[in-house]
Design brief:
Structural class: mainly beta
Number of helices: 1
CATH architecture: Roll
CATH class: Mainly Beta
CATH topology: SH3 type barrels
Oligomer: single chain
Largest sheet: 6 strands, antiparallel
Helix content: 10-25%
Radius of gyration: 12 Å
Number of domains: 1
Shape: globular
Strand content: over 45%
Distance between the termini: 24 Å
Number of strands: 6
Amino acid sequence: MYSYLLEELSKAIGARLLIQFSYSGETFVVEPHLLGKNKNNQDCLCAWQIETAGAESATNQWKCFLLNDMQNLVLLEQRFCKKRPGYDPYDNSMTRIYYRI
């Protein structure tokens, strides 16, 4: 299952598809930009948050999600066109980068 998640996230980044998933009891819609391993040796996704269903979390911001905590991933048909402000393809919070825009 975990390799399936990595494969689907890589596909979404390559095709610039929005994704939706559950995380900590909330549902997020994000633009995935960077997939890799953080300094705590955890696989994570850095993404631009578009919306959060059922919560009052801020949207339109950068957020990092641990892959171990992501559930119910869906690749949406809607695409995004541009890199968001502040995107760093060489993010120094990552020790290894698997896939990036």
